[in-house]
Amino acid sequence: MLDRLRHFIIDVISPEAPDHRSFDETGCKLAATALFIHVISLDGEPSDVEIRKLHELIETRFGLDPGTANKLITSATLAEGEAVDLYQFTSVLMRSLTDEDRLRIVEMMWELVYADGRVSEFEENVVWRAADLLAISSRDRIELKHRVGSKSSAPDPAT
């Protein structure tokens, strides 16, 4: 577990990042999962619904078995707990992912925001900041929010 965290930190501070890495690489998965942990932890202790949704997203979207997903979530929780800001995670994703993959990350963040049936201003603000750091336009961010929100029964604080 410490090796993964060490590799993640090296990846974050490394000035020589490869031009393009696949979305399946551990560094990207760890960075994205740390963002997800941050989102579900904003309004206190993550609810059971949020934790189940996180596991579902990690397993289905990242193609991981439950055991590997648990290990990734544990590592990401450590990384998120030591993080100073979102940039250390979004910078890894910016260097590594395509525009489409970054849109998927923001969509997954919205799915986690809507998972517990409550959308707080803090959650909305974090998704806005992360989307901005991931070079996702306001229009795309809002479109993703409405798309995910229309599938959910959570009230939208902006309306």
UniProtKB/TrEMBL annotation:
CDD domains: terB_like_2. SUPFAM superfamilies: TerB-like. Residues 30-145 form the Co-chaperone DjlA N-terminal domain. This is Co-chaperone DjlA N-terminal domain-containing protein. It comes from Nitrobacter vulgaris.
